[in-house]
Input
Amino acid sequence: MKILITDGLSPKGQKILQDHGIDFNSQHYELDELIKVIPDYEGILVRSATKVPREVIDAGKKLKLIARGGAGIDNIDHQYARSIGIPVLNTPGANSYSVTELVFAHMFALARFIPQANITMRKGEWNKKAYKGIELAGKTLGILGFGKIGQLTARFALAIGMKVVAFDVADVETDLDVEIADLETVLKTADFITLHIPKQAKPFITAKEIEMMKDGAYLINCARGGVVDEKDLLAALNSGKIAGAGIDVYAEEPTHNLELTSHSRVSVTPHIGASTVEAQDRVGIQIAEKIVATLKG
Ligand SMILES: NC(=O)c1ccc[n+]([C@@H]2O[C@H](COP(=O)([O-])OP(=O)(O)OC[C@H]3O[C@@H](n4cnc5c(N)ncnc54)[C@H](O)[C@@H]3O)[C@@H](O)[C@H]2O)c1
Output
C-alpha cells in the first residue's frame, strides 16, 4: 500500500507509517501533475498547500482515503469524496495551542507597535514617543466561532485579565466566564475581535460588520482567507475605523495584496498558524495513526 504525501509529514508520523508497512512518496505536485500521478496511490495526505478537487478524486482510481494534516478540510472536495465512499481524515484540535498563541502574538504586537518598531529600528530610528501602546488586560475580546480554537483563545484571554464575549452559529455550552451573545453584540462591544470560523462561501466580515465595530477596534484573522473582505479591511485601516489588524490567512495564498500586507498598522504572517514543532508532531502522529487505522483496520 502506498500513499502520496504532498505537503510533508513529521518524522514521527513517517515512522508510524513505516512501522505499519505503509509505503509513501513525499513530493509536492501542481494540480496537472497530481492528476497524472494519483492513480498509483491508495491514499493522499495534504496540508493546506495542496488542493484536492473532484478531478483529482476521480483520477485516483485506487484511493481509499484522503487525509489532511490539520483541521480545515476546505481545500478538499470532501463532500464529493464522502459521497463516493472515500473517507476524509483530519486532525481537529491538534494545532489549537499553536493557532491560539499566534492570535496573541498578533494582539500583543499590535497593542505595542512591535512590527513598526522592528522596521524603524532596523533603519536606525529611535521613535520611542510614537509607540504609546495599550494593555490587553481589561479590554474585551470578541470571539467569532467558539469551537476548539475559539474556546482556547477565551481561556488565554481570561488568564490575562480580558473580558470575553463570543458568538457561534451552533449552541454553545461552556463553563468559562464568557458572555455568549449574538453577532451584533460581539461586533459592537469588543475592543479586539478574533475569527475562528471555517472558510465561508462569502466574506463574513465586510464593510457592514466593520461599521458596527467600535471605532479603533482591532481585528485578527488566523482562521481562513476570504473570511474577511480584504478590500473593506484596507479601507477601514486607512480611515482609522480599525486601529490595527493581525492577519495570518489571505484570500489568495501566497498573497499579492501588498497594500494590505505592508500597511503601517498590520501585523502579518504567511499562514503559519499551525507551523510549530509541537503542532506538527501532534498532527503528524494523529494523522499517521488515522491512516493506519483506515488502511489496516
Ligand atoms: N491559521 C492556521 O494555520 C489555522 C490552523 C488551524 C485552523 N485554522 C482555522 O481555524 C478554524 C477553527 O478551527 P477549530 O479547530 O476551532 O474548528 P471548530 O470546528 O472546533 O470550530 C469552528 C466553530 O465555528 C463555528 N461556526 C461555523 N460557521 C460559523 C459562522 N458563520 N458564524 C459563527 N460561528 C460559526 C462552528 O459552529 C464551530 O463551533 C478552522 O476552520 C480553520 O479554518 C487556521
Q: What stands out?
A: The two ends are 13 Å apart (CA to CA).
